[in-house]
């Protein structure tokens, strides 16, 4: 799980359905904290300046997962494809994967920065920071987003942030989510598709990303493309769940030939590299223009290559005392079944003269009671007054299982989830019987104009709001 969907499938036999599991007791909640604006869900407070103030809490806090073991589900499924396993709803978070993708936009100010810079190197720095910030919301988010139903959509317009966003589940097997976003000032276009490949390694589940991410800066006539790092959730059998990102991300500026190479480092034996990101920006002649370093959970800095190399040489010579990363109690033997996440106590080692590119937003104080959501994530499933009349009938906000889970009605949410999955199975069988092919509504398969690879492209027209031919999926 983590950022990526999986497990739930319309091919599931039902043997491992959440309906077979008892829902645990709800955590204690403070009724005064259910919504800090004092408004009920759907009644958004308007500030004096006319800007909508989005909610700061979910209607109900999350349920405890302590009574459940992922292994109790997975051990029955050895030899099965992960996409055919249905997990109990208690392991979910009340967001669809389409809404989770929208969290790319939380740090949209970095796109605005890129648009405003005249120097192509500074633009690439801002784009690199944006690519890293896109995975930052995953930190401590071990809940599984709901798998989107085929044809499900999600739209988000944020006038205060200057963008609008639309996504659609364009394929169920394999699961593919396509998205398109544009600046309200017509300054950028951001689009792509995501279809992760899941692997179960016994103690961990790895989601290898597939699909190209494209950012176009219209004012500069530039396009950048990249692919996300691999996401891995550890301790799915026993111990505290934790996740890491690793792999190499290459961001290419197709106009200048500049490239940013970012290495998301795996944790390592004693956790020395946990969350670390290091890389560089090079021009089309492969000359290093700057070095980037930091943590995807914390911040990102850049400095010139000479300064960086000098600092690293001095560090090797013992010029600076290295910090102690883990205590003796944290060092686990190779036979330790728990394989707990090391208790890392250091922060990013600042190199004098570096420039700050990005820093993670502080999470709301009640985040731990809200699936470790950021403030941006808390607002994503908000159903404002009058919105239902203009939304597409396929929008995530109208999904009854997610809505009931958000409201704390776990038994109803579980039954609704099972009903929707059964409805999807029945619709698929009916199409197969009549030999009817599924047609996507807002996206189509094509070729990415910059990479030449297969991609899902926005067909346009969503915001004309002609929803007469949308499928009945709920």
Number of strands: 21
The chain-level structural class is alpha+beta
- Radius of gyration, taken over Cα atoms and rounded to an integer in Å: 23 Å
* Proportion of helical residues: 10-25%
CATH topology of the domain at 73-260 and 435-464: Porin
Taken from the alpha-carbon principal axes, the silhouette is: globular
Q: Unreliable segments (pLDDT under 50, ≥5 consecutive)?
A: 11-42, 320-346
Helices, by number, come to 8
Biased composition (Polar residues): 34-44
Protein name: Oxysterol-binding protein
GO cellular component, one term: perinuclear endoplasmic reticulum
Organism: Pitta sordida
Could you name the key traits of this structure?
474 residues, alpha+beta, Porin, two-stranded antiparallel sheet, 17% helix, globular, OSBP_sf, Oxysterol-bd_CS, Oxysterol-binding protein
Quick structural gist:
The protein is an alpha+beta fold. It is built from 8 helices and 21 strands.
SSE map:
Layout: E1 45-46, E2 52-53, H1 70-74, E3 92-96, H2 97-101, H3 109-116, H4 120-133, E4 144-146, E5 153-158, E6 163-172, E7 175-183, E8 188-194, E9 197-200, E10 204-208, E11 213-217, E12 222-226, E13 230-234, E14 242-253, E15 259-264, E16 276-282, E17 288-295, E18 299-303, H5 305-316, E19 355-359, H6 375-378, H7 400-406, H8 410-434, E20 443-447, E21 454-458
Parallel strand pairs: 3-4
Antiparallel strand pairs: 1-2, 5-6, 6-7, 7-8, 8-11, 9-10, 10-13, 11-12, 12-14, 13-14, 14-15, 15-16, 16-17, 17-18, 18-19, 20-21
Helix pairs in contact: 3-4, 7-8
Protein name: Oxysterol-binding protein
Coiled coil: 403-437
Family: Belongs to the OSBP family.
């Amino acid at each position: 799980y983590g950022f990526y969907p999986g497990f739930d499938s319309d091919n599931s036999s039902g043997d491992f359905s959440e309906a077979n599991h008892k829902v645990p007791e709800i955590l204690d909640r403070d009724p005064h904290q259910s919504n800090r604006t004092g408004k009920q869900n759907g009644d958004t407070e308007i500030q004096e300046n006319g800007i909508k103030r989005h909610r700061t809490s979910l209607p109900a806090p999350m349920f405890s997962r302590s009574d459940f073991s992922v292994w109790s589900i997975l051990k029955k499924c050895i030899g099965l494809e992960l996409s055919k396993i249905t997990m109990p709803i208690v392991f979910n978070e009340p967001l669809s994967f389409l809404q989770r993708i929208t969290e790319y936009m939380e740090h949209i100010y970095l796109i605005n920065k890129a648009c405003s810079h005249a120097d192509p190197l500074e633009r690439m720095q801002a784009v690199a920071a944006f690519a890293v910030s896109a995975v930052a919301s995953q930190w401590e988010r071990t809940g599984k987003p709901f798998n989107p139903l085929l044809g499900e959509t999600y739209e988000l317009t944020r006038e205060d942030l200057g963008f609008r966003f639309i996504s659609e589940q364009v394929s169920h097997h394999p699961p593919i989510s396509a998205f398109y976003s544009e600046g309200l000032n017509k300054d950028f276009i951001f689009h792509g598709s995501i279809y992760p490949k899941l692997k179960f390694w016994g103690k961990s589940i790895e989601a290898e990303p597939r699909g190209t991410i494209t950012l176009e800066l219209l004012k500069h006539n530039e396009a950048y493309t990249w692919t996300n790092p691999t996401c891995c959730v550890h301790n799915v059998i026993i111990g505290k769940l934790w996740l890491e990102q690793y792999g190499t991300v290459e961001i290419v500026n197709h106009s200048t030939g500049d490239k940013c190479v970012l290495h998301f480092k795996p944790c390592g034996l004693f956790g020395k590299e946990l969350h670390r990101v290091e890389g560089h920006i090079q021009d089309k002649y492969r000359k290093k223009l700057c070095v980037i370093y930091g943590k995807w959970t914390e911040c990102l800095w850049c400095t010139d290559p000479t300064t960086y190399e000098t600092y690293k040489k001095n560090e090797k010579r013992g010029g600076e005392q290295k910090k102690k990363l883990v205590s003796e109690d944290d060092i686990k033997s190779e036979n330790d079944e728990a394989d707990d996440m090391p208790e890392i106590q250091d922060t990013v080692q600042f190199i004098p003269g570096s420039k700050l590119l990005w820093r993670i937003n502080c999470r709301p104080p009640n985040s731990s009671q809200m699936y470790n959501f950021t403030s941006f994530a808390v607002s994503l499933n908000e159903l404002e007054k009058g919105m239902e009349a203009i939304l597409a009938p396929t929008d995530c906000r109208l999904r009854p299982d997610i809505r009931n889970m958000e409201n704390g009605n776990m038994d109803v949410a579980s039954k609704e989830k099972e009903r929707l999955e059964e409805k999807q199975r029945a619709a698929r069988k009916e199409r197969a019987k009549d030999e009817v092919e599924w047609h996507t509504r807002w996206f189509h398969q094509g070729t990415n104009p910059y990479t030449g690879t297969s991609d899902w492209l926005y067909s346009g027209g969503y915001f004309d709001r002609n929803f007469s031919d949308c499928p009945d999926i709920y």
